[in-house]
Amino acid sequence: MTAPTRDPFPLDLWSEAVYSRRSIPATLATGASAPGAPEPDPAVLPDGRRLPLAPPPLRLQPAHQGQHQRQRQDQRQQTGNVDLADPSVLAALLHYSCGLLQHDLTPGGWPLHRAVASARCRYPSELSLVVPAAAGGHRPGAVYRFDPLHHQLALVHHEMGGAPAVGAGTARFLVITSRFARTAQLYGDYAPRLCAQEAGMLLGAVHLVAAALGLRTRPGLDRETLLELCAGWTPDGVEHPMGYLEVGNAQASGRSTAVEARLPWVPPDAAAVLRARHSGAAIFDPEPVAAPRALLDDLGAALATAPFADFSCHLLVRQVADTPPGHYVHTGERLQSVRDGDPVPMLEQIGQTEGRVSLNFRSVACTAYLAVRRATAVARFGADAFRQVHLVAGAAAHLICVVAARHGLTARVHNGYDAATAERLLALTQDEETVLFQVAIGAAKPAAGFRLPVVF
Ligand SMILES: Cc1cc2nc3c(=O)[nH]c(=O)nc-3n(C[C@H](O)[C@H](O)[C@H](O)COP(=O)(O)O)c2cc1C
């Protein structure tokens, strides 16, 4: 296996994991361990002093708040002054972005489901709260790891002289790291691709939940800040720095983008929507019913305020009310028609796994393809481009999943697609744009599984 430590995203990942999927081991089909897979992750639960978290609220903007509290919250939302000092805000942010939300009791199934999808529920992603050292900059003074299983924080790192407090203060960062070995046990050298996708989705989740709570976030792509934030607590070659967001205190760094200038899209009763999100049954075979037109309107609003703007979303619409079937592309908030007509033949050519159609495209409502400017990113950032563009597209992919859930639909991230065929049939810019996500949306049939909500 390639050593994930020194170069977690070698340039040949593009050909091995995105274009050809050659790095997926044959053993995946049987569920057996990948040949040469790393040892099982010994650090299943984080070490360190435990801090209880407040029970997560059932609503992200609690209706039971008194008038006075509501006014204060409205003011905070306008000024961006909500901070993590409020224990219920911190608990809600962690739980609804990375927490354990559903327990599936189906024998032989995957029992635990987090707020963000994960290939075969391997959950390689970790979310940690980094409190910068008093000296300033991004070096950590204390790092608190979120433990979704117990809804707790574990203190995993602190500077000499004691740990700075969790919430109070100015700059706080939520840092996403990934333990590739968890996914590599099944997926071998394909794991970095899946881990990068999931890290992006988790970033999108934190951004969305923070917005629902009235918190400002500034997600960053740069490697220097990320590595500084991860200094001293991410075991080399075991846990890979993936992404970060600065939370609260909007004036702190002065960085801002056009995307951040607008308030992010948040669904009404966001907590209920996030609790309902799921990826559907083992084989994605939805009911062939039309999705409401509002699905596309919400997709436009959500993608227009995604954490990063540098992606495009091609939608192949099969059955959506008041919308002719065909190929559309999202630019800004607008859905532009590229070509009318039944998209199923195109979907069945793109959406293939080893020569077979990956899911039932004949009954989906629509399928989204997220594309990024790969060649430009590689020219600018070399091997780190892989991480960066997966963060960009992953954050948008999670929004698509949440928009589907808001309309009672299921969204399935599915890597069974042929990237070169997608480029050709979607008429992407040759040798520049690459599809990183295929997300099918439909009305899930009642499944054999039975998922219970997890309550802390
Ligand atoms: C990056 C990524 C890739 C995935 N690829 C596939 C895939 O190729 N085929 C598939 O059936 N499901 C795929 N999934 C769906 C996961 O198996 C699903 O999210 C997981 O079972 C968790 O279910 P939940 O989202 O309902 O909690 C993928 C999910 C992610 C996040």
The separation of the N and C termini measures 40 Å
Strand content: 15-25%
CATH level 4 superfamily of the largest domain: NADH Oxidase
Radius of gyration: 21 Å
CATH class of the largest domain: Alpha Beta
Q: What's the overall average pLDDT, rounded?
A: 90
How many domains? The number is 2
In the predicted model, the low-confidence regions spanning at least 5 consecutive residues are 1-5, 62-72, 74-80, 250-258
Distinct small molecules: flavin mononucleotide
Number of strands: 18
- The number of distinct helices, counting runs of at least 4 residues, comes to 13
| CATH architecture assignment of the largest domain | 3-Layer(aba) Sandwich
Plain-language structure description:
By secondary structure, this protein is α+β, with helices and mostly antiparallel strands. The protein has two domains: 13-32 and 49-60 and 74-261, NADH Oxidase (3-Layer(aba) Sandwich); 274-442, NADH Oxidase (3-Layer(aba) Sandwich). The protein is 30% helix and 22% strand. It contains 13 helices and 18 strands. It has helices at residues 13-19, 67-79, 87-98, 180-187, 191-212, 223-229, 258-261, 270-276, 294-304, 344-350, 374-381, 385-406, 419-425, and strands spanning 50-52, 100-104, 112-114, 125-132, 140-147, 152-158, 172-178, 217-220, 240-247, 312-317, 326-331, 334-340, 352-353, 356-357, 366-373, 410-413, 433-442, 451-453. The strands form four sheets. Strands 1-6-5-4-7-9-8 form a seven-stranded antiparallel beta sheet, with helices on both faces. Strands 12-11-10-15-17-16 form a six-stranded antiparallel beta sheet, sandwiched between helices. A three-stranded antiparallel beta sheet has the order 3-2-18. The longest helix has 22 residues, at 191-212. The radius of gyration is 21 Å and the shape is globular. The two termini are 40 Å apart. Flavin mononucleotide (FMN) is lined by residues 110, 113, 117-121, 194, 197-198, 201, 278-279, 413-416.
